[in-house]
Design brief:
Elements: H1 9-15, H2 18-61, H3 65-75, H4 80-98, H5 104-126, H6 130-158, H7 167-221
Helix pairs in contact: 1-7, 2-4, 2-6, 2-7, 3-4, 4-5, 4-7, 5-7, 6-7
Amino acid sequence: MEVSHDLSFIPLIQNASVLVQLVMGLLLLVSLMSWWYIFLKMFTVRLAVKQSKVFEEEFWNNSDLNQLYREVAAAHQDAGSMGRIFAAGFAEFIKLKKKQGVDNSAVLEGTRRAMRATYQREMDNLEAHLSFLASVGSVSPYVGLFGTVWGIMNAFRSLSNVGQATLAHVAPGIAEALIATAMGLFAAIPAVVAYNRYAHDVGRLSSRFESFMEEFSNVLQRQP
């Protein structure tokens, strides 16, 4: 590590030890990836909420479930998660109804299983990358701290070659090391905030889907 009196940001990074530079590079890469997933989840969750709201309005305003099923089957991806849950349940309901010797309880149980399987797939898609954001939020500060500790160790080791240690000798090395901690926090804080926000939103969607499945099961139970 070179001792430099230039405390501006770029020279401090350039003069840091190779290991500290690698830590900073890793944190920068992780931060960029987390921001990509943050924006990706933002659009995904907003779209899921919007599609669920539109489908619920169509479901409760449309008394013809067969027509609604055809519309959802034609739209598929544009139908949203709730629409696909409905389509999976209604398709299984119609298939079991056509079978001879299947009582109503078995029909409803099969319908619920079909909806539950689709629900789980939809939740897996909505929860994708949330674990990455959680890992970035919890691990990044420690990675930055590791770079800081290593940098401070090098800063003090360099003082062994100096006859009289002054603040001018030790300040650049410590500043270089502390940048790693700052970058760790820069990567962690947005990831933690985004994870908490999207985990909450996905949890609300999950409750909304489960409520719909129960309501839809009650509607099918009243079908002749």
